[in-house]
Each structure stands twice: as C-alpha cells, then as structure tokens.
From TrEMBL:
Keywords: Oxidoreductase. This is 2,5-diketo-D-gluconate reductase. PANTHER family: 2,5-DIKETO-D-GLUCONIC ACID REDUCTASE. It holds the Pfam family Aldo_ket_red. It comes from the Bacteria. Substrate binds at residue 115.
Amino acid sequence: MIENLQARVTLNNGSKMPGFGLGVFQIPDDQTAAAVASAIEQGYRLIDTAQIYGNEAGTGEGIRQGLAKTGLKREDLFVTSKVWNDHLTYDETIAAYNDSLAKLGLDYLDLYLIHWPGDNGYQESWRALEDLYQAGKIKAIGVSNFMANHLTDLLRTAKVVPVIDQIELHPLLTQETMRQVAADHDIKLQAWSPLAQGKLFSNPVMQKLATKYHKSIAQLILKWDVQRDVLVITKSTNPDRIKANAEVFDFTIDDADMTTINALNQDVRVGPDPQTYDF
C-alpha cells in the first residue's frame, strides 16, 4: 500500500510507477496546462492523458510549467498516454505514438496503453507497442478497459505482459474478478472514474463513514482504493480539489468499514461496457 503522494509501486517489468496521479479526461486543452502544473506543484508525479482526449498539447505545456516551477526533472514524473484503438494497423499505431510524443513535447513516455479492446482489434496495436517498448521508446506498456476475456486472448500471443490494466473501478463496481485475474498475471489495476461520477456522494453509508473519519466521501473512496492496492487517477481542474483528493495518507479505514464499502458493489458502470462498446 502506498503511503504518500510520491510513493511508487514496482511493475512487472521493474519500472516504478506512482500509485496516485492526475488524469485529464474531459479537460479542455486550454485548461489542461494549468491543472497539470498545479498538480505537479502540489506533489503529483503521475500525469495521465490519452490521444482521444485532445489535450496532449496542454498536458505537455503543463508538464513544462510544472517542472520549471518546482525544479524537478523529466525523469521525476511518470507520464501516461493511450492509443485510441479502432482496429489500428501496426503502422498506424506507431504513427499515433509519434504524434502523441510530438504533441506532448516529450522524448519518451513512461507508459503507453491501448485505450479500449474494441471488437478484439488490438493484436496489431499490441505488437507495435511491444516493438516500441523493446526499442526503448516507452518505459512500460499496458492496456485499458480490458476484461478477463480480452487479457486471456492478448496473452496467447503477447511477447510482453501488460504492466497495468486501467479500468472503471469504484465501490459500485468493485471488479473482484478482474482483481484476481490481474493478480494471477502480476498486472496492476488502475482505477479510472474512482468516484463513480459522484454517484456515492449522497449514499447514507458513505456519509456516515465520512463523518466517522472526518474526511470527505471522495477522500474515503480514494483511500479505499489505496488500501486495496489499486492504483488511482483522479480528475479536477480546481487546485483546491486537486489538493484535497491527495489528502488520503493521514488515516486508515478499519477492516470492518472496508468490508462495508465493498458490500456497496452493484456491478454498476458509469462508463461504457468494454464487452459491448462499439467504436
């Protein structure tokens, strides 16, 4: 379990990745730089973007501003982007990676993911990621929104095992099956939409627990992830909320309350279902 905002976990290829970071999904490009720079100033070291977000340029500018303000070096940060997989060919995937690097203004990525499995159209994309990784252009490669069947299929031919699977995960969707599958292959899970778009903020069970721990419901949920060894990315453009989201390392949820939160699971999604999502 990570114990602070800069703490890193070791991935299956030996890379070390911060367990807690800022995601920039749905943040307009012209607002992204300020959010990213603020997060870096406040201690965040993991920045997560994607080709489809349309804000890689703003993310790169925020990284440059954050480094300039803090005196940190590029290698102090961990930067993730994702290729939008719609039956991409090998060459199209390579081109997408180079385009992302150019927009970010970086020489390399720490982590590159296939964003969605689509209709099982990821084999060529994964081969491209493997070659980029073997060439030293990416520090680690992984997937996003892959369920057990997708991972099983990918691993039949993969030469490199994904280091992480970034999936929708929150107390309404605890993803116990995926937790076991990932553990079996030494793949870390990383939660997107960890707060379920606020759907638990009026939940009486969570309200009672938040009062008990003198924390917000958001902080309680994020700590629940941390204690389950799930990596977390949170999203905000508000500097105060960016700061508050990271204030989860000064308390511990007891075992009984962890069980209570686990019991809120309804297998309910706030995002698309990877099994049916149609590009």
